[in-house]
Amino acid sequence: MTEYNKNKKSGVRRILLMGVFWRILFIEAALLIFSLFYKWAAEDVSHIDLFWYGIRIIIMVGIIIAFMMITLEKFLNHRIITPLEKIARSNKRIQKDITRAGHIELSDDAPQEIKSIVTSRGKMLETILSVSDERLRLMNFIRETFGRYLSNKVVDEILESPKGLQIGGTRKIVTVLMADLRGFTSLSETRDPEEMVQLLNRFLEKMSVIIHKYDGIIDEIIGDSILAIFGAPESHGNDPERAVACALEMQNALTPLNNEILTSGYPPLEMGIGINTGTVIVGNIGSELRMKYGIVGAAVNTAARIESNSIGGQVLIGKSTYELVREYVKADPAQTAMMKGMKKPLVFYSVFAIESKYIVLLNSPVEGKMVLPIRIPFQCWKIIDKKIDLIPMTGETISMDGNKIDAHIPSGLEIFTDIRLKFDFCIDAHCFEDIYAKSIPFEKGGEKSFNRLQITSMDTKDRAILKKWISQGLY
Q1: What is the pTM assigned to this prediction?
Q2: Rounded to the nearest 5 degrees, what angle is found at the Cα of 315, between the Cα atoms of 310 and 317?
Q3: Which of the chain's ends, N or C, has fewer CB atoms near its CB within 10 Å?
Q4: Residue 4 pLDDT > 60, yes or no?
Q5: 132 C-beta neighbours (distance < 10 Å), count
Q6: CA–CA separation, 363 vs 247, rounded Å?
Q7: Measured at the alpha carbon of residue 363, what is the angle toward residues 358 and 367, in degrees to the nearest 5?
Q8: How far is Cα 374 from Cα 475, in angstroms, rounded to an integer?
Q9: Which domains are seen in the chain, by residue range?
Q10: Which one has a higher pLDDT value, 340 or 404?
């Protein structure tokens, strides 16, 4: 039996009219039987007369039933059935468009009870629409507001999942991107805090747009560092590719940003990026009083270790990530470094291009083509775990360009070591401020005492003097 036939047989019109019909028929049948019995018992009539008497009664009853059904149907149809059917049709429209299902036209002589039902129904729909609109505005406000602190996808997962606020997480394979500005801390010491916040916001705004473009999730913004995740809350199957392409584009985006901030007297920004892929726990971390959506696992720590070995403008990826994207990327040969607390050497690759669904080539630096041979004595201190060693080492520069220093350090310096460097001279009443740099791979005659230092932070005035020397070829 179709749904239409079921609704037709159970509709108010059929139920009401058939109920009235059968009750009238029952009453008339009872009267017919009573009349025949009374006629037979009270009067001495023949069976033939009694038969025709019954026929006349049946005809009269039929006429009465027909008259009553016609008049009652018209009355009930106008006063009760049609208003109820209008309410039913309007209720069905709620499933399609609740905003068009509120108004119902009733005749003035409709029963007061039905008018009351329609009035109550209208108020109920107004309340539902008001609450729905308010809830929608609240949801949009929550998404817009908390989407600035968390990714929109994370906010959606928290709002739509019944377990969205439960403490705990799930195991996922994700690709972690760690980015950090070079020399921002030392720059902050010489600038007004409000200026630094404005500069940092400009940097973070550009980087955030790129991360969202590649569907990454910004998990943390800690000062001048960004921790982004690719593969959570959901994986796209190409998370490592997206992370690498995103990192390369982030590095390229620094060039136009530096062109903008140079006009305001800021030194160019440099950023190092480390990427690693591994298993982590993703979810709500903390307590019932204070929690955050985040990730925990060795893969995050490894990404931070890889990033710590990068220099400005470089994208380093761990071995686990490289194995997943090796057919798409162009990278320098593998480099290894022994890190404190790690039992095995850390292996990573410097990537400068990716060609897959995403095609991104790392911009080549313009600076550094002119080299100035110059001998300047200096002292330097190792920086280990962000702490400056108390024992200084001595050395002497061999040559310098805008970003690098080739130097001779008799005691030797392991590659990827961060140092603070101080020149032992002043010129024209100007003394150079501390320079922060990182030792990078460099070979000169096979001697370990020769090192190449990538400048990560340098005072703006000092950098201008260095550029002047390089352009003139002397000092």
Answers
A1: 0.62
A2: 90
A3: N
A4: no
A5: 12
A6: 12
A7: 170
A8: 8
A9: 1-146 (no CATH), 171-361 (3.30.70.1230), 372-472 (2.40.10.220)
A10: 404
